[in-house]
Amino acid sequence: MGAHATDHDDSETDGPKVLSVSPRNPRVRTIQIHRPAPQDASFLAATAKGLGVTLRHFFKNVLRGKDHNYIETVEYPEKKVDYPERFRGLHRLMHRDDGAVRCVACMCCPTVCPAHCITIVPAQTDDKGIEKFPAVFEIDELRCVVCGLCVEACPCDAIRMDTGEHAKPVEERHDAVMTKDALLELGARSTAVQGGEGAAWRERK
Amino acid sequence: MHIVYAILDNPATKWAVLAMVMVMPLASLLTWAERRQSAMMQDRLGPNRARIPWPVVGRTRLWGILHFIADAIKMIAKEDFVPGSVHRGLFVLAPILALAPVLVAFAIIPFGPTIYPHSFTSVLDTYHLAAGSPETAAAFTDSIRLQVFQVEFGLIFYFAILTLANYGGTIAGWASYNKWALLGGLRSSSQMMSYEVSMGLSLIAMFLIWGTLEPGAMVQLQGSEPWKWGIVAWPFVPIGLISFVLFFTAAIAETKRAPFDLPEGEPEIIGYFVEYSGLRWGMFFLAEFIEIVFIAAVITTVFFGGYQLPFLDADGFRFGGEWVLVNGQQVHLGGAFAPLPHGIVTALQIGAFGAKVILLCWFQLMIRWTLPRMRVDQLMNLGWKILLPSSLGLIMIAALAKLISFL
Ligand code: SF4
Ligand code: SF4
Q: Residue B320, CB half-sphere, CA atoms under 13 Å: how many?
């Protein structure tokens, strides 16, 4: 019998005790099974122990006040768990100082969007510093995978996902499409410097 | 007035009151209690929202108790669906076969003392009641016994009638024309048969101790002093306690609930009522809960003094005193005594019975949510190799104790 005939050491586990191992095929063994002692087989002691645990939880949860019991359940519609600060929620479009949309329809976000859920129809504007603005800006919140890439991509802090709300349930699919007006309604004036210096930044120094 | 008391004393009236006022409400409340209690044991909240949306009353949710009404409405409103290839007659019959016997079995349980309407407002004269003196006979002419059937074979009737209930599950499994349902039905019948044996045998020791099979007589023998109740019956060995543990285990198996819920195995192994839905399924469900109440009632009667409240005799609270044999009946007299009107005593005793039953139901739910399900071989081992020999041994010990006490 080879010293390493068994592929693991049975004596360390609670498994069956190996009495002998066949020399030709180490997997053929004579084993001895542990039968539980009568007091264990009757389950009485284990039942009493288990009842002790459940009784403790039951009475603590029933008798002790809200802050002293084990219950962690939050009663959802009345109470809500605060989302973490960087929670990515519904999108919103930020405003310029005059309340117009900040977006310059650069098409970075629809390009980067992995779900192809941003629809932008650009239009000309008289403001020569901007040139374009989105005539249509729609996000299909049902298709959005909440990756936040659009926010990363935006060069002028026009789109954000910091509303702290998640998409509301809707009855019709098209109700989940957020229009430009809805996105602007959630938005606020951005404190980022408008326009920047343009190409003139090279001559700053 | 005699006719009113006669109607009230009629078994049909008593059974209707017992089933509709005590058993059904308690069983349906248990459907809520089970979910809420299991939630409390598992650190959840459970169903706590059902309420009637009325301006004032709707604001309080009553811990969600109204969920049982919501459930009932849901089950009644559901489509009554019968799969195409089932055996229609038996399919319809099976839930009734499961529900009816457990409701009938309640007939033997004494849920309160005998009421004497004429002395309702005065203290019951137990001495003259037992002596049967003619001058006081008028006070005891009418009586309402709060036990539907008082028959000598008492608990044997229970064993006989509950055997019928097992047909419900087996027939449901067969009639469903579904292999898994059939297997569930077979598991159900094998489990029921195995455990019925030890369930009956485990109580025989108590029958020997009380010398009667009749639950009403058992309650009277146990009396108002808690150290005479069945659970503490102690001739040489704790026969009452052992018998209680054995019977309780077998009885939980009879209700087909965890840890013995192999016949149903709702989440994974699929039980005999897999093809049932709506109200028909609800009947199986209700039968299970009524069985819980019933087992609590039987245990209360045999082991916990039935409707007896500690130290409360038929005529008031009494500490000490002695038992006097009057006209062949034991009457408790003397001692420190605080008389109470018969009406109040009756109310207290019915309340005591209800409280004991509710407590035992609660305990059954605790067990159900504490233990995991057994394997089939463990189940059979426990039934045939542990419960059966133990109850047979207990019978011998009880018989020996009885014999020695006669010598
Ligand atoms: S979060 Fe991602 S998926 Fe959603 S709109 Fe932005 S880029 Fe598209
Ligand atoms: S990346 Fe920003 S500026 Fe460009 S189209 Fe999207 S929202 Fe508008």
A: 5
Q: Per-residue pLDDT tens for A76-121? A: 888 888 888 889 999 999 998 888 898 999 999 999 999 999 999 9
- The answer to whether residue A65 sits within a structural domain is no
Peptide bond into A23 cis (omega under 30): no
- CATH number of the domain at A99, please: 3.30.70.3270
Q: How far apart are CA B53 and CA A140, in angstroms?
A: 36
Measure the CA dihedral B168/B171/B176/B180, to 10°.
90
Q: Does A83 touch chain B (CB under 8 A)?
A: no
Under 8 Å between Cβ of A103 and A129: no
**What total number of domains does chain A contain?**
2
Per the CB < 8 Å rule, is B41 touching A47?
A: no
CB B82 within 8 A of CB B91: yes
Check whether A44 has a pLDDT greater than 60. Answer: yes
- Amino acid in the structure at residue A37: A
B210/B357: higher pLDDT: B357
CB contact under 8 A, A71 and B43: yes
Which pLDDT value is given to residue A179?
A: 93
Q: Provide the number of structural domains found in chain B.
A: 1
- What number is the average pLDDT over the span B272-278? 87
What one-letter code names the amino acid at A79?
Answer: K
Ligand 1, from A107, A120, A146, A177: best to mutate by most atoms within 8 Å of Cβ? Answer: A146
The upper half-sphere exposure of residue B293, i.e. CA atoms within 13 Å in the direction of its Cβ, equals 29
Does the pTM surpass 0.90? The reply is: no
Closest residue by Cα to residue B159 from B112, B205, B208, B193 = B193
Within 13 A of A156's CA, how many CA atoms are on the CB side? 23
Range of the domain at B301: 83-112+147-308+341-406
CA distance A18 to B85: 53
> ipTM of the predicted structure?
0.83
Q: Render pLDDT for B229-262 as a digit per residue (tens, 0 to 9).
A: 888 877 777 889 999 999 999 999 888 887 888 8
How far apart, in whole angstroms, are the C-alpha atoms of residue A90 and residue A141?
A: 8
A44 — contact with chain B (CB < 8 Å)? yes
Q: What is the per-residue pLDDT for B327?
A: 77
Ligand 2 atom 3: residue of nearest CA: A103
A75 touching chain B per CB within 8 A? yes
Q: Domain range for residue A11? A: 2-32
Determine, yes or no, domain membership for A64: no
A110-119, B11-20, B55-64, B205-214: which has the highest mean pLDDT? A110-119
Six token digits for residue B26: 């308690």
pLDDT digits (tens, 9 = 90+) for B68-78: 888 889 989 99
CA distance B367 to B330: 38
Enumerate the residues of chain A whose CB falls inside 8 A of the CB of residue B365: none
User: Which residue puts its alpha carbon closest to atom 8 of ligand 2?
Assistant: A103
Name every chain A residue with its beta carbon within 8 A of the beta carbon of B45. 71, 73, 75
Residue B215 inside a domain? The answer is yes
Reported as a single tens digit per residue, the pLDDT across B81-99 is 888 888 999 999 999 998 9
Instruction: Give the model's pLDDT for residue A199.
Output: 60
Residue type, B222: Q
